[in-house]
Write a structure and sequence with these properties.
Elements: H1 7-23, H2 26-33, H3 41-50, H4 68-81, H5 87-101, H6 104-115, E1 121-124, E2 140-143, E3 147-158, E4 165-174, E5 177-188, E6 194-200, E7 206-218, H7 230-265, E8 267-268, E9 271-272, H8 277-302, H9 308-336, H10 348-360, H11 365-377
Parallel strand pairs: 1-4, 2-4
Antiparallel strand pairs: 2-3, 3-7, 4-5, 6-7, 8-9
Length: 382
């Protein structure tokens, strides 16, 4: 297996790192933290101009036909700058689900608009009682003469407040009652009966909870046909975890470099902290954890389109291992900066908060160690 980047991938990495270094400084991040949108529409437009929004979309729908590895390269650069734009919600989750499940007409109506930056999406699946079980959906979609009626609630919808349309998962009820299938419905945010309450996420960006009360939708709001969407949801979430793992690697790499530089200039008893052998060992341990996390994120990306069990094990293994590495690197960085590490004067604390948030998204390390083990015992695709 050739793990070296191609020329196009190296150019993508260089351009993304250069853009993030030039556009995302401490002042910009503080400004976005105080902005009710949580991101910059001007930068979102630049993402579109650079082709990043079109990156994983098929060429026939105005995209560039990239894959999970290219998304990982971009997300690692985003981690270095604590980028708060709704890229995961719109491109990694939303566009992927439409491309996976939608009809040709639905793809033609939405994907080119995602690629040019005029349509932002969100994916509403998590529910309060689900405990990261993707199959546990209490929201219902009842068949009506005009189309569909949705009722239920969703939590932790990434960037749902900024979306133009939200993809909502619901158990399909037809004229015979519960069908046992999960459907995906495209719901415009202006639809009557849809209530959104947003809040800031730990480490930057925003999320929201939504309530659906007698939401009436037309027949074509259902993505694709009447097949069960659970396998597509698992596929999309595994890809999202690979992307978020790459973002966490970028955050950890920045913390490592920042901490290394700090220990070179911070003196104690007339000597730099980095002259202390114990400090050097801790920095070496941090570097090892970053490299291990990078390898796991790359493996998850490479397995993103493999068979369900193989893909799921790679994604859960990466989520569990990177979550453990992230906590170690973040805690070491805070400790080696001393009291300064938890003040707003330095950004170490903001990076650490984003790592903590990563460990909770789509299930923590304990949950994914368990899923990894369960999939290892599985003999059927899940």
């Amino acid at each position: 297996m050739d793990l070296n980047l191609s020329d196009e991938q190296r150019l993508l990495r260089e351009s993304a790192e250069r853009f993030v270094a030039e556009s995302y400084d401490a002042d910009h991040r503080r400004s976005m933290a105080n902005d009710p949108r949580g991101f910059s529409p001007a930068i979102w437009k630049q993402f579109a101009d650079l082709g990043w929004l079109a990156l994983p979309i098929a060429e026939e729908f105005g995209g560039l036909g990239g894959g999970a590895v290219e998304i990982g390269i971009l997300m690692e650069a985003f981690g270095r700058g604590l980028v708060s734009e709704p890229y995961v919600a719109t491109v990694v989750l939303g566009a992927a689900l439409i491309e996976k499940c939608g009809s040709t007409s639905q793809k033609q109506a939405t994907l080119p608009r995602v690629a040019d930056g005029t349509l932002k999406l969100a994916f509403a699946h998590s529910e309060r009682a689900a405990r990261f079980d993707l199959a546990k959906v209490a929201t219902t979609a009842g068949k009506t003469a005009q189309g569909w009626r949705l009722a239920g609630s969703k939590i932790a919808v990434l960037d749902g407040h900024a979306a133009d349309e939200i993809i909502v998962s619901a158990h399909v009820h037809d004229h015979r009652g519960p069908s046992g299938r999960i459907g995906l419905f495209l719901v415009p945010v202006s639809t009557p009966g849809l209530a959104i309450s947003d809040y800031p996420r730990l480490g930057g960006g925003r999320a929201c909870n939504i309530e659906l009360s007698d939401v009436q939708l037309p027949q074509d709001a259902l993505l694709g046909d009447s097949e069960d969407a659970l396998p597509a949801i698992a596929w999309a979430v595994d890809r999202a975890m690979a992307a978020l793992g790459a973002e966490a690697v970028g955050i950890m790499q920045t913390l490592l470099e920042t901490t290394l530089e700090y220990t070179k200039i911070r003196k104690q008893f007339g000597r730099p902290l980095s002259a202390n052998q114990v400090i050097r060992h801790r920095l070496a341990d941090m570097a090892m954890q970053v490299d291990e996390a990078r390898s796991m994120a790359l493996r998850a990306a490479l397995k993103a389109d493999s068979a369900p069990v193989e893909r799921g094990r790679a994604a859960s293994g990466a989520k569990a291992k990177i979550g453990k590495c992230a906590r170690f690197v973040g805690e070491q960085s805070i400790q080696l900066h001393g009291g300064m590490g938890v003040t707003e004067e330095l950004e170490v604390g903001a990076y650490f908060k984003r790592l903590i948030a990563f460990d909770t998204l789509f299930g923590g390390s304990a949950h994914h160690y368990g899923r990894h083990a369960a999939l290892g015992r599985s003999t059927v695709p899940v």
